[in-house]
Each structure stands twice: as structure tokens, then as C-alpha cells.
Amino acid sequence: MGCFTFVKALMVMFNLLICLAGICVATVGIWATVYENSFMNILPPFNDKIWSHVNVGIFCICIGAVMTWLGMIGCCGAQKESKCLLIMFFSIVLIICIAEVAAAVVTLVYSSYAEIFLRLWAIPGLKEQYGKNQIFTNLWNSTMTTLQCCGFNNYTDFSGSYYYMQNGELYPPACCLGLELFPCDEDNADYSRVMGCFKRIVKNTKMNVNIVGGIAAGVTAIELAAMGVAMYLYCYLDKKET
């Protein structure tokens, strides 16, 4: 009986955390919906295409609502000792696990298309929006400063751009070294050889692949543990009835 009580309390606490996480995700979704115009300005090349059919705020609200609902099912199932709710919780988590495995497989298969997708977003934006759209400019300035990179591929992404033409054919400061001595013109940018942001991201990702894998393994372990706890409670209650 002591073991059952402990597992029951563990199930309740775990699902309360899921509810809290769901509320947080839903809050982010509400924020994205309220400030939709500012959020969508970050992705100008796709505003009239892909993102016109995708509402990120509503998506986050839906995910948050599902997480909150799932947490309530697990919490109520454990607290009320309901076999129906417990098996429902187990089935939903099992479906989520299968969906995650399928998503991981699809990601591995189509990972080669990630560069193409990002290139379609980044390069037109750098040509047309950098220096003109303040939100887009701040986003890229922050990225280039933090990662110590320049453009998507390199400094040539800014050649002939709005920023380049409006600033006397100069490149952003992040594209050059030794700015205190020389302006960031083509010669200085070519000499500096600052790495493109996509290459820097790929390099950093490879360096931190163990951390990413550990997080994924941790999430999977939590889901399997939740399924195990739910099934234990279900079997205990089933045996108790017989």
C-alpha cells in the first residue's frame, strides 16, 4: 500500500508539472497572437506565402491546451484512482511517443532541405530588409554579434543590398575585423573572412550534439516513466477490483 501511495503522489506531482508547462506554452501563444504583427515582421520573405497560412499563436495555444488537458487527465486519474483516465493517459502519451519517433525519422531524412529553406528566408531578407526593417535588423545584429558571424553564407550576402547601398557600399560591422583602423568595405570584409552564420550554427550544433541528444533522451525517459507509472496504477487498481 505504501508503494502505491508513493507512486500515486508521484503521478499527481508529475502531471501538475505538465499542466504548468501547458499553461506557459499557452501564454506564449496568447502573446504571439496579441503581438502578431511584430512577430511576423521577423520573417518578411514568407509573410505572403507560407506564414500567411500558419498562425503560430493559435498553434502554441492548442499545444498548451493539450498539455494542460493531458496533465489534468493524469492527475485526476491518479487522485480519483480511475482506470479509465489512467489508460487514456497511457494511450495519449504512447501516441505522442510514436509521433516523436516519426518526426525524428522525418527530420533525419529531410535535414538536407533545412539549408535550402533557411537560405530562401535569410538571403532575400538580408538583401531587402536589413537596415530597413528595424526588427529584422536587430534580430540579425544580435545573431551576428552573439555567434561572431556575418550574413548567412558570408559578407557577400550584403553585396548590393539596401544596407550596402545606403551606407556608402559598406558592410555591417560584424563582417569585418579591425574596424578601428579600416572601414568595413569589400577589401576588409574579404580579408577578415568572418564565417557565415549558418556555418557557425552548424559548427556549434555539432559541438553540442551530445547535449541535444541528452535532452531528447531525457524527454523520452520521462515519457516512458509516465507511461510506466500510469500502467502500474492501472494494473494495481485492476487487481484490487478482482
UniProtKB/TrEMBL annotation:
GO cellular component: lysosomal membrane; plasma membrane
Transmembrane segments: 12-34, 54-73, 85-110, 211-237
Entries under InterPro entries matching the protein: Tetraspanin/Peripherin, Tetraspanin_animals, Tetraspanin_EC2_sf
Keyword flag Glycoprotein: yes
Subcellular location: Lysosome membrane; Membrane
Topology within the bilayer: Multi-pass membrane protein
Signal peptide segment: 1-21
UniProt keyword annotations, A-Z: Glycoprotein, Lysosome, Membrane, Signal, Transmembrane, Transmembrane helix
Stated role: Structural component of specialized membrane microdomains known as tetraspanin-enriched microdomains (TERMs), which act as platforms for receptor clustering and signaling. Participates thereby in diverse biological functions such as cell signal transduction, adhesion, migration and protein trafficking. Regulates neuronal differentiation in response to NGF by facilitating NGF-mediated activation of NTRK1/TRKA receptor tyrosine kinase and subsequent downstream signaling pathways. Plays a role in the inhibition of TNFalpha-induced apoptosis.
Family in the record: Belongs to the tetraspanin (TM4SF) family.
Subunit field text: Interacts with SLC19A2. Interacts with NTRK1/TRKA.
UniProt-recorded name of the protein: Tetraspanin
Organism: Danio rerio
